[in-house]
Amino acid sequence: MHADAAASVFGGAHTHAALLRLAMLAIALLLNASSSVVASGVLLTAGIVFVVCERVCFDRVRVAIASATVSTGVLVISAAWAGGRDSAALLGVRVCGAAVWIVWFAATVSWPALRDALRASGVPASVVESAETGVVHGLVLLGGLQRKHRAAVVRSGGRRLQVDAWGQILAAAFESALCRGAALGAARVLRGAPSADAGGASPPAPEVRSPVVELRRATRARRGGRGLAEVDLSLADGEWIVVAGANGSGKTTMLEVLAGVEHLDEGRLERFAAVVEGRLLSRRADPRVGFVCHDPDDQLLGATPLEDVRWGLRQRGIDDGTATGRAHAILAEFCIDDLAEEPLSRLSFGQRRRAALAAVLACSPRLLLCDEPTSGLDPVAAWQLFGALERAARERSLAVVITTHDLAALPARFARVVLLRDGRVVFDGPRHEALEPARLRAAGLLPDPPTIGGVGAERLGC
After folding, report:
1. Which pTM does this prediction carry?
2. Biggest alpha carbon distance in the chain?
3. Sign of the alpha-carbon torsion through 332, 336, 341, 345
4. For position 415, which CATH number holds?
5. Domain limits for position 150
6. For the chain, is the Cβ count within 10 Å smaller at the N or the C terminus?
């Protein structure tokens, strides 16, 4: 559990022989599955020789041996019970042989090299993208296991973990991976919505009458009774607004409704003069809408920043060469072009957030929705973000809605503020009025002042 999850995928030497090694692996696995005990033993020995000669990292071998031992033990016992000793021996040798060959291949061929080789050989883009998705989900799961294992070791004071602790670690990691997988699935639908933009330049702005977005008595229930309750909101073309409120006030729910991630229980939503409806996310998605999640890992679909940005551009029919150029340009705007080929799991939270924003802006949205975009960013990175938004707005009409807790440290262009409390709008107006203490208290963003004797201070609690 101490090996870097990304190193197993990106740490192998980049090689032009990626397809040859893939063919060798496929042949070895096919022969292993249909050979006798002796032939499978020879293949196992050959695999071990390759592992030793190419100096495969011991951590990977140790993980493979542990996995093969557990799976072999279960399968051998089952085979021995069902078919006798010969079947058990054959199955055991085959499982060990397959594990060794897979470890050799994974340790000597990096995923970027294999991905590029598959594309160059004419493998359909959908197949390569499916494989990329599998890599991303695998890294999410492995990363979750490693983080939870480290946390368990620290919390136990360095003591040896018991079997029940491992069960809890595995259960928590798988639950987290499933939730992340669902979020990535939603992001894939939103970011992959079809578009007519097939050229290298930004698409021409279509004629859209104001408002860009309109909510009428919008209601969306959430577990615990918090969500949206009869919210009215109108956003003009090119307008920038801030949505603020205490935790649980409905800020994220509002953005998810505007993006189409969540559907309304009651009320009406119009985007670009068209009613948004339907239970399927694909019916509510719009390529002109960019949605940036609070957690960037919920929307990053590529294994590296460059691949993630290119993914969204390719969905809009842009060729690989143009997509690569535009991806490098937008990553440079966010000062992470030097990390373009780094595994996303190795980037800091703030760097991943910038990568997520870059990927959305690269697709030239007309409406940008950002859930606390400056969270996790230092002041310099935050101003770089707003600078990139300003440049994007100069190139085309761009309406922006962000959520934040820090109303004071925003560019002057955010002149309008909407304050939410318990899913209801308690203020919608100029920013300078929203900063008045009475307004902030009404939204739950300031505590009530203590009364004589300090009685009011009790309300600081839950």
Report:
1. 0.69
2. 89
3. negative
4. 3.40.50.300
5. 7-190
6. C
